[in-house]
Amino acid sequence: MKSKNSIYYLLWQQNTISNWPIYHTLYDKCHTDLTKYCLSMLTNRDAARIIAYEAILELLSQLDNKGVKNPDSWVINLVAEKCQQYRITASAA
Q1: For residue 91, which of 1, 31, 46, 69 sits 20 to 30 Å off, Cα-Cα?
Q2: Quick one: average pLDDT of 55-75?
Q3: Tens of pLDDT along 9-62?
Q4: Nearest residue to 72 via CA among 8, 26, 4, 23
Q5: Is residue 1 in some structural domain?
Q6: DSSP labels for 33-80?
Q7: Residue 2 falls inside a structural domain
Q8: Number of structural domains, the chain?
Q9: Rounded distance, CA 19 to CA 48, Å?
């Protein structure tokens, strides 16, 4: 069951019920924080923004499929994994 206190779950539920575009709400509320989290691991601002954007899209997909039990930790772990992959790829280039 999804955490009822998760901002991601609450926004998803609100927007599903009201038929407002959930992506814009999640993006407005969460993209800046996710980007800052990425920047704590990366120095490339553009890469951080892209990773945060992709994480929100993947989260939406998972919430629609009801595949995420704890959206907050899931998206943070996803962002951390994507940042690690980016660092590995960047250092290999």
Answers
A1: 31
A2: 80
A3: 666 565 554 445 666 676 777 889 999 999 999 999 999 999 998 998 888 778
A4: 8
A5: no
A6: HHHHHHHTT-S-HHHHHHHHHHHHHHHHHHHHTT--S-HHHHHHHHHH
A7: no
A8: 1
A9: 29
